[in-house]
Amino acid sequence: MLHAFDFKYRLEVIECVSGHHDDSRWPADLLKCCAFRLQEIPPSTVLVFCHKCVDVFAVKHKCPSEIVSRAQLRAPTRLLAAKESQSGEAQFYFSDESLSVLKNVVRRSQIEGVLCLGTPRLFEELRQETGDRRLFLLDYDKRFAQFFPAHQFGQYSMLVDHFYDERSSEELHGFFECSSVLLVCDPPFGVFLNPLMRTCSVSTGISFDVKNLEVLGNVLEDYKDYWMSDYRITYESHRLFSNASKTIVRCFTNLKADVFDLSNVKGYKFCEFCEKYVSSTNKHCFMCSSCTSKVYTYKHCDRCMRCVKVSYYHCKKCTRCHLKGRFDHD
């Protein structure tokens, strides 16, 4: 939990109330956001948060509540219980290590605006940093509307490109006035790729994406400007993907490779030939002019003119490499 951001947070809230955003444009329900109402509560007041009402109170509340600090209210993903629904709404947040890497990518990209699509923890971390960077969060979880002002948050479904409040769409259009926009997207596990990419294509200035390794082949075939970083994204409290050796999630991006500085992350090395950081187990193939390994060690097949898994062999009938015994003619 970070604590050194009280002054920055106060500046943001004051700007929401009396700066660039006129309160009269928004109905009363949107002004119930904690960020607005905290300005009316003396700093010395003990605050209680009700998980049932998803609200903060300055006095004793009728529901069972817990005492919280103002700092906790600025990091709702660490305060709210993550959804555990198996119907596609389950929430998993980036681990602290992955957060650090992604924040560094954002800084090194030197882009004016950052659009966080389904990445609320990264959004709340970036809000705590000083600077002129503009931020906007799109997420399906409507609970975040209680913590983030309307000019920075909209409830949104990334798969069907649907805003649950048309005012959020208007605010997003204003956000896209930035000279450059970096999109950080973390889609639900098992999501179909095409609807998601169509949604991303609706917006302009897209520069960053996070995808599952499972769809990598189709992605690279359809989107030639994108490449996959070797960095392994990990998640907090995920049964498998909290472990870097087991996660299949990678960063898929059209940013330049030099924004990924993994010099202080264990398990990576800098390839002087590729001029980027790769997994420490990855080997450079001079025939392919690339570090080709994804998860396992690869070997180069002269006939296929590409690198394949070590367990593959070149099949004359198929005229390609595959695992021995996969087909009847093996």
TrEMBL record:
Pfam families: N6-adenineMlase (PF10237)
UniProt cross-references to InterPro entries, sorted A to Z: Mlase_EEF1AKMT1/ZCCHC4, ZCCHC4
GO-annotated molecular function: rRNA (adenine-N6-)-methyltransferase activity
GO CC annotations on file: cytoplasm; nucleolus
Location of this chain's protein in the cell: Cytoplasm
Keywords: Cytoplasm, Methyltransferase, Transferase
PANTHER family in the cross-refs: RRNA N6-ADENOSINE-METHYLTRANSFERASE ZCCHC4, ZINC FINGER CCHC DOMAIN-CONTAINING
Name of the protein in its database record: CTCHY-type domain-containing protein
Organism: Angiostrongylus costaricensis (Nematode worm)
Taxonomic lineage: Eukaryota, Metazoa, Ecdysozoa, Nematoda, Chromadorea
